[in-house]
Hints:
The complex is a heterotetramer. Chain C is built from 32 helices and 43 strands.
Amino acid sequence: MRKYFPVVKIKYLLSLIFFSLLMATVLSDSLQATNTNKIQPKDTTRIQVKDTTKVHGKDSLNLPVKDSISHVSSDSTIYKRTIFSSEDLRRGERLFFGLVYLGDKSVNCADCHNTRVSDTLNWNPDALEISRKYLEKSSLDLRKVLLKPAGPKMKQVHKGFQLGAEDIVLIKAYMNKFAGIGLKQNKPVITNLLLLIVASILFLLSSIDVVIRKIYKDQRINWAILTVTGIFITWILAINAIAFGRAKGYAPAQPIKFSHAVHAGQNKTDCNYCHYTARTSKTAGIPAGSICLNCHFLVRNGTRSGATEIAKVLKALDDKKPVKWVRIYKLPDFVFFSHEQHVSAGKITCDACHGNVKEMNRLYQVPDLSMGWCIDCHKTRKVNLSNEYYKTYYSDLYDSLKAGKIDSVRVTGIGGRDCGKCHY
Amino acid sequence: MRSSSYISIYFDDEVPMLQAVKKLLDSKEKITDVLSPFPVHGLDEALSIKRSRIPIGGFIFGALGAILAFGFQAWVFTVSYPLIIGGKPFFSIPTFIPITFEMTVLFAGLSMVAAFLIKSRLKPDISFKPVDERITDDRFVILVDTADKESTLNRVKSLLSGIHTLEIR
Amino acid sequence: MKKYWKDIESKKSKEQERRMEKTPEENPLLELFKSNTIDLPASRRDFLKLCGFGLAATAFSSCQSKISKAVPYVIAPPEITPGEAVFYASSYINGNDYCSIIVKTRDGRPIKIEGNPDSGITQGRTSARVQASVLDLYDGGRFHGPMKTGISAGWESIDTEIISKLQKIVEDKGTIVLLTPTVFSPSTKSVIAGFLQKFKGSEWIQYDAISYSAMLEANKTSFGRQVIPDYRFDKADLIVSIGADFLGTWLSPVEYTKQFSSGRDPEHNMNRLIQIESNLSLTGSNADNRIQIKPSQEPAILLNIYKEILKSVENRHIDVPASPVDITEITKKLLSMPGKSIVISGSNVKQVQLIVNDINRLLENIGKTIQFDSYLRTHAALDSNMDMLIGKMKKGAVNALLVYNVNPAYTWYNRNAFTEGLKKVGLTVSLSGTPDETNSLVQYICPDHHYLESWNDAEAKKEHFSLMQPVINQIFDTRQMADTMLKWSGSTMSYYDFIKDYWGGNMMKRQSEYTDPVTFFDRTLQKGIFEPAVAPKVSVEKPGKSASLPFDSILKKTGNNSGKNIIEIVFYETVALGEGRQANNPWLQELPDPVTKICWDNYASVSPAFAKDYNLNDGDFLKLGEVEAPVHIQPGQAYGTIGIALGYGRLKCGKVGDKVGTDVWTMLSSESGNIVYTTKLDQIVKTGRTYIFAQTQTHHSMEGRAFVREAGLTEFRNNPAAGNELHAYNLEHNKSLYKERKYPHHHWGMAIDLSKCTGCANCVIACQAENNVPVVGRVEVQRVHEMHWLRIDRYYTGEEDNPEVVFQPVLCQHCQNAPCENVCPVAATSHSSEGLNQMIYNRCFGTRYCNNNCPYKVRRFNWFNFSGAGTLAGNLRDKEGMTGNLRRMVLNPDVTIRAQGVIEKCSFCVQRIQAAKLKAKYENRALHENEIQTACSQSCPANAIVFGDMNDLKSELSRLINSGRRYNLLEELFTMPSVNYLTKIKNKIL
Amino acid sequence: MLQSPLRTPLIEGKKTYRSITSDILNPMMNKAGKFWYLGMTIAGFAMLFGVFMIFWTVWQGIGTWGENRTVGWAFEITTFVWWIGIGHAGTFISAILLLFRQKWRNSINRSAEAMTIFAVICAALFPLIHLGRPLLTFFIFPYPNTRGLWVNFNSPLVWDVFAISTYFTISLVFWYVGLIPDIGTLRDKISKGLKKNIYNFLSFGWKGSARDWHRHKITSIMLAAIATPLVLSVHSIVSMDFASSIVPGWHTTIFPPYFVAGAIFSGFAMVQTLLIITRKAMGLEAYITESHVENMNKILIATGSIVALAYMTEMFMAWYSGVEYEHYAFMNRATGPYWWAYMIMIGCNVVSSQLLWIKKLRKSLVFTFFLSIVINIGMWFERFVIIVTSLHRDYLTSSWTMYKPTIVEFGLLIGTLGIFFTAFLLFIRIFPVISIFEVKSIMKTGDQH
């Protein structure tokens, strides 16, 4: 039956590719549902100026480097330069990425100012932010912030930079360009989709081979492939089906690098201080800018982020433009969930659902917010019937609880499993 | 299942074939198999094939299906997610009956067919080669097991001389 | 209990302005709101859906949930808690309609109107029009800003131009005329007075499309006061109404329904209503006795009653022609209860009203059931003024016409005269907020706010003041009419300050509770109303001797009209649309008429016998003079008469209301200065065209089934279970194999008193507004696809040509043994532990089995994508624009919007139940009495619907359920509904 | 082989095993005729029309149908029950007649079973597309999910899903088990090529061994034994969609037997329609003889009479129960606005089937063909009468209304007819229409050996 299946070799090739990919992904721990792989609540504050071990006079590309220090010029005409060749831009880029040795050390801007989308919280503004910010400003402003920084944080970070005027102009030129490009996405090399396609093809080929029985003399190979790919396909389908549209572990970058670990953890701000409507309303509410101002009217400098992030809040207030946060906890619209019910009536603590927010720099979604998750809690959570309301209407339960006839009343015992309590 | 060496006796009708089977068995020849285009009446008895146990398997699986279906429904309505529906009690047996019955039939039916296919080693196989392509048309073949093909052939030929055979080889 | 808004200044704060900018797209509020659709582009279930379409592979890894933004306030407004409703007391004024209301706002947008229970007029109740008015706010067809000859212009330039033109006219000694409906806002009146003073030689003319000018004139003659008295139906034991639809449209129906229904309590006091009329009106449908007459017979009947009463009371005799109907019993009853009856007439003929007045005088009703202490101020316009104005306009004697909120180019009987006259007016300005036929002809448009955006006050009845306040910042670039007038008068004051000043000056002195005008104003604003405890007595002059009545002219009118060929046409207002002001309101257009159950149309009603004689079928088009209208065969229509509704056939009101029905205003005529709402025709011609009505009920008989159980008052007094004998029988015979399930904690239930229900359809719209019920449009109603969760069944009993009418509101009965629950394959409908039948829209996949198995047929299926919440693209069916960004603002965020293909139904307003329970838990207390009210029960003007916990033995509901009148609909099916009905008790003569 | 001397031969003409093989395999070995292509074209267009209407329904919504507030089911469930009913003859013939050792069934059971499968496919389409949200059909299956929610086992629709899918599976398996030896024959008749490989693949390696035959027989009989209650249960459960509701006219205990009888009645009518054409078109007159047709006609009389009796019983019970709603519902059927549907039902099902008492008519192929179509129409109207006239006037008179189908609904009916005939036409070209091995096993009954 060779004519129905001419390219025998492909089979071995595919098997090889598949198994190596499988190993690779299993090892890299990325073989999970789409949204579940982003929980890395690490604090990655990086305040460092790296020393390089590069040979003097050469950058990593082995190109000769001009000694910038010798070209220090106070000529302000340099700063007004507007036309750059592609060579200039490349040099600007290399300067930005610290590939040019300047003086006794190199300055890697990209080390602190991310040029890629990051999964973790980097306190420093990313490259796009600073680029956009300086799009309107001149190179002289950039020079000021690089060489003579004002804020305490900046003074510490931008200490001892030795950049020539031309370098600054070139960095600025690159930054202008970067503002148009934007951050690079970290694309996973091996996607689940690719794996699935490969597995499906293998599965199909092996099924055909089982029936036609021509290529492998030993059918056990086919059965092995069928079993492994079958399990893999089922597993990935099931995992994706369950996670589809769910956002467990969802930890998007926010427009302001707001850290719950700092506010709720270190500064011990009560959740209800900012999310004050949680006690009285269905929604916990995203705090209005004016609430931030309660503290940040005075606190203008953060220990780690400096003034940059706080300045955004102040700017939003000045411009009367609300900060557009990315919403993390989101129930479908056909679910009615009331914070008031759970926080005030049910006396559930915030962390029961939102996890240990006090340790999260970048907030992420802890539960998957599936209906099963809700119901599971309702099945196990005990109700405190001491509220007058319950005493009046659930007197039978209250009395038997007091008399010790029953040991507890669960939420399901007072209708916590009724469909119409949440869906209407 | 097929021994390495056998002789085939061809007929074009089931009556002489049945006679031949009887004669061969009477003379203690070992009949590996009888191949026919349709189930020949009386052949089972002649070959004294034991009644298949497929129905027993069907019964067991049917019972399993019934228990699973009933148990599952009862579990769903009383333990997993009890819902008040139409004022009925959570555990209301009548409503579980239809599905229990259907699952019984499904389990029994599929298990019997599966047993049949497995026992008869029937499976999709593109490289299958029949013993003789005429068997499924109008040929009846008795396969006689043999160690020594030559002598058995002669023995069988003489044994079946009075019966209308087409070919013995 | 309720949070009423009180912080005035923050109302004007910048944040609010920002929140409600002109372009709704940029509004964070809207953005939050937009997410209120059932399915987002990639919801979890889509995954399996896509699997179903074989797209599973492409769905992986490429599928990330859409990023949704959470946009907070920049500065949190103190009076708004996101996700919590805030209530503001205000007033509803639309033309002559008035209602004291409480507006429910969510996140800064009004979404529901409730009645203000403190009001002495409407007493916390509303009408369908009031309920629907919130939707008018979100009508994108309203004027978006000032315009000059159809082109947008700025307020400043327009102001300058108009002011200079007005001043020029004053300098030239010209005439400026301000044309408004009856204005009953004291502050506005004061503003207008200022305007008239500023522009010398200007006139103010009030014009009401539906005229009561004959009554005003007659009252002037009879009582010396040109006002509409304060009718007290609650004090009357016998009401005789001749063609006055006081429960539906006449004067102040909400107030009258409340009064009337308070006298429909068979256990205690029971009044009697006798209706003598041509059309089967809502009032006629509720009458204990109803007599059909031709309109031309009205005077003769009244004269005969008058004659008998005169004979009996004053022992005088007058000669009148014989009455076409037997009135002896009516007269006897009237005479037997002096001071405890009301005789009213809907006629706009002065002489008729004079007789009515004299009858009431003779029956000693004046001062008792007809009072003048707090007379009605909502109707004060005289038709003759309008006649005069048009005469002047035609002569070119009017130099400027400022039209506000009236639409004579549509509602005036001789509209050609008006439009021709308008051409001769030098300056024409419209101050109305919505487009209409009149302001399509004017030069300048200076649009008014919607009333929910306005400051105002009102004195609907003498010494019954109320305030109107904005509950949302203006959506469009509009300006309140009073502000415009103030501006033109040269005042720099805003109308809000003007009102405060006015109240400080005029209202303060009427009370003694507050000494500080600011506190007084704020407290009043919070309460919404101000009704000074002691009303000054107004003496009524005794009318003169009855001999002064000009009988001759009346008799001439009576004439001999018994000829068969003379067909009389009676024009009336519908309960939903009235004179047609709210014609662009899809809710009202789709509201089935209480009696005919037809929506999206008007029609020529004829009696069955008449239809037979003239060989007419339902839907045949008739040529009536100039206009064409389809025939509707209406049992109860007087033989030889045709009833046809005004307010339809508009051409310039907007997308929804244009070209709906037939415009018949031009068929009206004027007689001795008053508009006559009847006319006569020699013949009718069938055009051959036919039509199918959008009618929600097409079978009108109960077929002998005991849906509505009735009994006479005497039978009832003898046996409280009279007419309800089946209930005991069913209780005894209904048996189940299963043990009855108990709901020990809460068991929500409802009682509907059919004796009280007038069928006014307020609850239908209240439910629609509360529960986001979609509008489907005329074609879909014709295809029996209407969506109302609550409908009012109307049945005729008795003879076909003179039927009695019964109403029965039917909503989900929340059966304990619910047939629908058993059959749903996916358990999308089940019972809650509180006795509610729950419908889970997101679980439903639309087999419609539940609806088939529902004996009450209260489940509604989303036949198409009416709401825009479906998953598939390009299949929206929203002819009426209800899913546009602006219209969607009216949706209640607590109620899911249902997608295409799911069943929906009444939930007993479970969102309100949940909210009230939560509030009780939060405040650590038991529920208050009547704390939980469904939308229908809360606004029912007749108090016919009572909601509550059936386990609460002290509640009003329990009292009603234990009454002998209680039964369940189709109780023989043993569905055990939680909705209980109380038998209808009638108080017939004989 | 035992045979009754009174019995007429089951196969006509002088046939040998070989001629049987070649007669029956003829269509598979040769090119199709122009009538086959014509038939395929018509059926294909009908199918495409139906597919478009399905697309339109799913996209635009159920509102494209004539159904409304009161009549929530109409055309689609009518057609669904009709197809399910048609699907009953196959299993009835193969299972019940097998258990009763009715040898004459051997010539017709294969095509009847195929018809069953195609009819069930057509039927199963309707519950799917009649959903408001057909993309969420998976809700009906009790699969483990993150909601922790299952289905409502109280609902007859869930029973339906289990019953129909079980019925379909068992029928398919039963049919295929019977096909295996015949595919073996086909395989061996074709010398080489792709076709050979495909048939080889499908034949599961059938050898014809005596032990295999033994197991095959046992399996077939046991399948027949369980399929018999199954076939009775399926239409009983379908009838419970109606019987377990409270709609007057639906809520009757007679429905299960009445529906089963009706189903077999309509199923046999459809078998008649198909076989009378097939035997002529494919030259199988010797195998599907007039006596087959007559035998089936006898079943038609029997089931037709049961159906007639059921109509009368219903009427009687409605009157006897004294329930006004029931009473009205049945009066309304006969005299209400849909009286014409009722009359078609009575005329086609009761009156026409009683004509078969006349032997001459019973033996007439032309009459039988005509009659079978009439019965098919009648049985469609029976379901229409039950569904629509019961719903359109139920309890509350305020909700009474009329139902009028739209072109979309007709399109769906036509579309399923297209699917059915396309499938059947393909079937007769791909698989033997008559069970070869079974015919061979009874050949001698007719051959007077």
